[in-house]
């Protein structure tokens, strides 16, 4: 933040989005769109932007390929928005060079792990109404999270009430594994499905045997009712 305050306000002409302020210093180009009442990401962000601040707006979604043309982007601030949905390919095209990604203080409950695990950037995910689940656990273990904000990743909802309101890291340190819970749930569902199919097969076999037995009994009774050969000979 101090860096942005030190940047000189040098206009870039028509290449700068109308709702933003563009500055440049020592070749580091920044696009400052903080607190501009934006509801979506501007389409005309300069391709050579290195720093992009979109914080304190009303953005609700990060669509696929939203920053794909920004191959020089190193720092992206999306904090203090109303983001609820992040597409799987939201950060496609900037994964290699991005160093910092701030998604703190939004309305994010869940996020596709594919959207974050491809990044090398340091992530800030604090102060969101997270639903603690396997995908979030995998992000916590595998992504590069800002260590100063990890404790603020709190379970707003969870499979069990006792985890609600607790930092996710604390829950995991206690030995909880959301991924194994999901696996057990999947195994139980598969077992129930297989049992159901097996039961249907058994019922079908029983009905088939009964039906054949009834047909056989009817056929035997019919044969018994016919006049015998001996009776015809007399």
From TrEMBL:
Domain of life assignment: Eukaryota
One Pfam match: LRRNT
InterPro entries per record: Leu-rich_rpt, Leu-rich_rpt_typical-subtyp, LRR_dom_sf, LRR_TM_domain-containing, LRRNT
Membrane topology of the entry: Single-pass membrane protein
Annotated GO CC locations: plasma membrane
Family of the protein in this entry: Belongs to the LRRC3 family.
Name under which the protein is recorded: Leucine-rich repeat-containing protein 3
The species this protein was found in: Pachyramphus minor
Upper taxonomic lineage: Eukaryota, Metazoa, Chordata, Craniata, Vertebrata
Chain's gene name: Lrrc3
